[in-house]
Specification:
The complex is a heterodimer. By secondary structure, chain A is of the alpha+beta class. Chain A has 11 helices and 14 strands. The longest helix of chain A is centred in the C-terminal third of the chain and has 17 residues. Chain B contains 5 helices and 5 strands, in the order E-E-H-E-E-E-H-H-H-H. Classes of the chains: A alpha+beta, B alpha+beta. Chain B: This is (2Fe-2S)-binding protein.
């Protein structure tokens, strides 16, 4: 139960401390780590914090938006330059959780949580990780696949593209307790179009695998085609490929697999859920 | 055992303590400061019974590292009354039957206060959103929503 709290100003120092202590956890907003401490997780001996301003910046000026890992969802909602991320930010917890939860921490949230990460994944998300030898950028998808081995690395920022148009990016969270509960399924799709055809489709799903995942078969079904009923039906039929949902108190794996295509169809055709 | 010095402002009064490393703010408030108005509900962020304001924003004290409030202002239900007089929210909850067992009430009141401090005349939808992180087991939400709206109306009348 006794835990040592170490607070560093610089991210690099915090990252060094984190990587050199197997029993250390990095605490951003606290919504994940404090819960573990409250439950008596004896594997946590050290809590590491950083006050570096690099963790708090939002750069929305370019085609690629960069968000510091320590930015809360309340901050995202207050940012007028990021309206396309507001639905995802709003779907996380209640007001108090949004005042505390951070973009960086959300990357580590276990299913059925981590909805904001689903949105980032559909928007070609990248993660800046401070390791022992400096900062490295890696694709969010790659980061998620190796997430459990990233415990010693400190996330400094995430970045994503700005959607091609307001209609190109869509997000939806299917939850029993709307909007704050854990998700039955979370869906995000970025569908830029060129010459009337989808070009560069990205579809991400949450709660359909241990981490957010790309629905690549559904992406292929849309790529190069007009976003019409035929293409949408093909994408909906392929939505479950590669998914590995689990049973939990919100929904069974069977249910998730059965309905993911239904919700993807609704998302793509603009129907209400 | 590692203990850390901690100073923060609690309902307008400076507090200085030594806290166990890794303690959450709720434990510090209840067991060290003696303020039992925030309630322990779930310990994992789902019920909102431990809602307090930190620098005016709603936070869940059970998920707040105590060391993180160094130098900040923490406000709990114990601090919202004005001298001997109830805050309009407290009066509205009492008069509007917006509490039954009362366990969720401190969290509800602080979530509502965070709303009214920023949006003195909220719509019903804004009230619903403001308390969406708080669970009530027995009163039901309608009397609570109506009480918050009544408090806003009385604040407007007195302004």
């Amino acid at each position: 139960m006794p835990v040592t709290v170490k607070t560093f100003q610089a991210v690099s120092e915090a990252a060094s401390a984190l990587s050199s202590d197997r029993a250390a956890r990095y605490l951003g907003g606290g919504t994940l780590v404090m819960r573990d401490l409250n439950e008596g997780d004896v594997s946590i001996a050290t809590v590491i914090r950083a006050t570096d301003r690099a963790l708090q910046g939002i750069d929305a000026a370019g085609a690629r938006i960069r968000i510091g890992a320590g930015v809360t969802f309340a901050r995202v909602l207050a940012e007028r330059e990021l309206p396309f991320l507001h639905p995802a930010a709003r779907s996380i917890g209640g007001p108090a959780v949004r005042n505390m939860g951070t973009v960086g921490g959300n990357l580590f949230a276990p299913a059925p949580f981590g909805d904001f990460t689903v949105a980032l994944l559909a928007l070609d998300g990248m993660v800046s990780v401070q390791g022992g030898f400096g900062v490295r950028d890696m694709p969010l998808e790659e980061f998620l696949q190796s997430r459990d081995r990233q415990a010693g690395a400190l996330v400094v920022a995430v970045s994503c593209i700005r959607p091609a148009s307001a209609d190109a990016f869509r997000y939806r969270k299917i939850a029993r307790i709307k909007p704050k509960g854990g998700s039955v399924i979370t869906l995000a799709a970025h569908l830029p179009q060129s010459g009337g055809r989808v070009s560069g489709a990205r579809i991400a799903l949450g709660s359909m695998a241990p981490t957010a995942m790309r629905a690549k078969a559904a992406e292929r079904a849309l790529e190069g085609r007009p976003l019409d009923a035929t293409a949408i039906s093909a994408a909906a039929a392929a939505a479950g490929e590669g998914t590995t949902p689990t049973d939990n108190s919100l929904a069974s794996a069977w249910y998730r697999r059965e309905v993911v295509g239904v919700h993807l169809r609704r998302l793509l055709s603009g129907q209400e859920s | 055992m590692a203990r850390t010095p901690l100073q923060f402002r609690h309902n307008g009064r400076d507090v200085a303590l030594f806290v166990d490393g890794g303690s959450n703010l709720l434990v510090v408030l209840r067991e060290m400061v003696g303020d039992t108005t925030p309630k322990f509900g779930c310990g994992q962020g789902g019920c909102g019974a431990c809602t307090v304001l930190i620098d005016g924003d709603a936070h869940l004290s059970c998920l707040t590292l105590a060391e993180a409030v160094e130098g900040r202002a923490v406000e709990t239900l114990d601090g919202i009354k004005s001298g001997p007089n109830l805050h309009p929210l407290q009066r509205a909850f009492a008069e509007g039957f917006a509490a039954q067992c009362g366990y969720c009430t401190p969290g509800m009141l602080m979530a509502a206060k965070a709303l009214l401090d920023r949006t003195p005349q909220p719509s019903r939808e804004q009230v619903v959103e403001a308390i969406s992180g708080n669970i009530c087991r027995c009163t039901g939400y309608e009397p609570i929503i109506n009480a918050v709206l009544a408090a806003a109306a009385s604040l407007r009348a007195s302004a």
